[in-house]
From TrEMBL:
One of its GO terms (molecular function) is dGTPase activity. Residues 75-196 form the HD domain. Coiled coil: none annotated. Its EC number is 3.1.5.1. InterPro entries: dGTPase, dGTPase-like, HD/PDEase_dom, HD_domain, HDIG_dom, PHydrolase_assoc_dom. This is Deoxyguanosinetriphosphate triphosphohydrolase. The keyword Glycoprotein does not apply. Keywords: Hydrolase. It holds the Pfam family HD_assoc. One of its GO terms (biological process) is dGTP catabolic process. Transmembrane segments: none annotated.
Amino acid sequence: MKSTRLYDQREHLLLASYAMHSCDSEGRKHPEPRHPYRGPFARDRDRILHSSAFRRLSGKMQVFTGEMGIYHRTRLTHSFEVASVARTMARVLRLNEDLTEALALMHDIGHPPFGHCGEDVLCERMASAGGFSHNRFALVIVEELEQRYSEFQGLNLSHETLAGQDVRAHKSEAAVGRAPLLEVQLVDAADSIAYDAHDVDDALQMGLLTVDELSELAIVRRAMEGIRGRHGMLPIRELRQALVHELIDLQVSELLQIAVQQMQIYEGRNYQDIQHLGVRFHHGNVLQKERRELESFLFEAVYRHPRLIPVRESAAQRLNELFDILMADPSRLPLRFRVRQQRMPTEKVVGEYLAGMTDAFCDQQHCYATTTPRGPLADW
């Protein structure tokens, strides 16, 4: 079809030789005819965007669970922010923006309710069934649990999008040897950059941190110098917003600066060459050290903040109680999970059901399960 050829020609003109081109995709598990005016990764992006699992991210808090999280970032807003940062970098480096965006929108789709404490609970309770990883569960969602097509289970995403998420599920293995696609690497970098900067923003807004405390960190001092050099002294609200922007900008700028120089010698190579050569994007040594310092500080000062601990403990208790109820009486699982239980370990199926819930839905089902002695819980 003429429009399909034009799509391929456009990518040939705009993308670098080492980008993942749509015409090189390995296709889908269930073959489908090519779309007349959308490439395979644009279709992946749209399928993820329209999935119910993606919409549920609006009810899953990023860090601050319960009442603390109402006015702060959810997994949904974080996913959009990651997609924005990653797509900007992909455009500069002439990589495939559609694939980058699809990967970014998908990357957190497997997160359970209640942020980090929800994952900790499920990992412990599912230990005998291989534990729990939100990155692995994202693949279960898009390959099995999403029900949007009559012809097959899941979303039938392209091989490259699924493989990119699989890299996230096996990060230690992906860190050596054959490199992931460059688009996959960009999303991983964008996730880390956005996550840290926005946690700083939310923590400052809630009063868990002060600018003075943050200014003990080298990367924050560097950002503050840039802000004051351009704007002088700012009111605290404007300073907080400027700090978040500056933290993102300086990290993105350095990564791009290094990557542009790095990729000059690979012009004419294709994506497979880049993978076999083990080419990986990176920050400079100084910024890498500064980022580690920031993340270590956030872990201790924010994620373990005294105001968060009782909220997290309460959420973990409710999730554990719901897990116990369903393990004791699996007939209370929704129908499609009872069907899955016939061929899978009960703790794995219970964990999957709980992992797909939003924070509020989990609380609703906990209330129902603890006050009503029988009857299946609602499906999500």
